[in-house]
Amino acid sequence: MSASVRLLRRPTAILAGAFLALALASTAFAQEADPVAGLGADLDRLWLMLAAFMVFLMQAGFAMVEAGFVRAKNTTNILMKNTLDASIGGIAFFFVGWAFAYGSSDSSNGFIGLGNFALTGFDDYASWIFQFAFAATAATIVSGAMAERTRFSAYLFYSVFISGIIYPVVVHWAWDANGWLTAFVPEGETPIGGGNGYIDFAGSGVVHMVGGFAGLVGAIMVGPRLGKYGPNGEVNAIPGHNIAIATLGMFILWFGW
């Protein structure tokens, strides 16, 4: 087994173990006195975990689509960038991302949450895993937009920045009860929309629009791939090296969505 494959598998195994430990801890900490209410809470938690795993499976889909559409020499680079989104980005979301998105304290406001840093005072780990899966998705969207023309060190900084700051702030606006765009408050209390607030369907705005706009800005800044255009402006085809892998990744993304 090559060193690059071992590097890819190690953080994935660690992350999977962390998921399992957090899921078990969440169930242990959430015992209810009423057995019926406890069963309902456990079923809610079970569904949340299943949904989180399906969303997280999209990481494999993105990785396969991007790996299939780049040239063979860049496959390891693109796979490592996708791994960074899930691992390093996940660490950033753990320490500060959740606090900016859903943190509860007297300092929180409509723009940003400020509380529960590193999940202090918070034990609903199933909710954290679910939200982490979305954060990783938003970050990974950008990887494909800048494929084959981004330095690894620069992408590392980006992954921490979007997972720890940019995406969580937008989450707070729309999905937290204190956000300035939220619809999760009684009618008449939201600052916009005549009391209705912003309705986000399946993360289309919070997740996909954030990732899409970040990818658009990144693609404009880094420009086209080297060799894409000739000296007279003619377009040169740069085909992917494995359409079969890209197609399989597409079906995994379809399933995860």
Give an overview of the whole structure.
By secondary structure, the chain is mainly α. The protein has one domain (3-256): Ammonium transporter fold (Orthogonal Bundle). It has helices at 3-29, 35-69, 75-102, 125-145, 152-175, 204-222, 243-256. Helix 4 (125-145) crosses helix 5 (152-175). The two termini are 32 Å apart. The mean pLDDT is 84.
Give a quick precis of the structure.
With 257 residues, this protein is mainly α. The protein has seven helices and no strands.
How many E strands?
A: 0
Let me know the average pLDDT. Answer: 84
Number of helices: 7
Number of domains: 1
* CATH fold field value: Ammonium transporter fold
Helix content: 55-70%
CATH architectural arrangement: Orthogonal Bundle
Based on helices, strands and strand pairing, what is the structural class?
mainly alpha
What coarse outline follows from CA principal-axis ratios? globular
CATH superfamily: Ammonium transporter AmtB like domains
Task: Name the helix and strand elements from N-terminus to C-terminus, one letter apiece.
Answer: HHHHHHH
> What are the low-pLDDT stretches, counting only 5+ consecutive residues below 50?
none
First-residue to last-residue Cα separation: 32 Å
What would CATH call the class? Mainly Alpha
What kind of sheet is the major sheet? none
User: Which strand-content bin applies to the residues?
Assistant: under 5%
Determine Rg (CA atoms, Å).
20 Å
Features:
257 residues, mainly alpha, Ammonium transporter fold
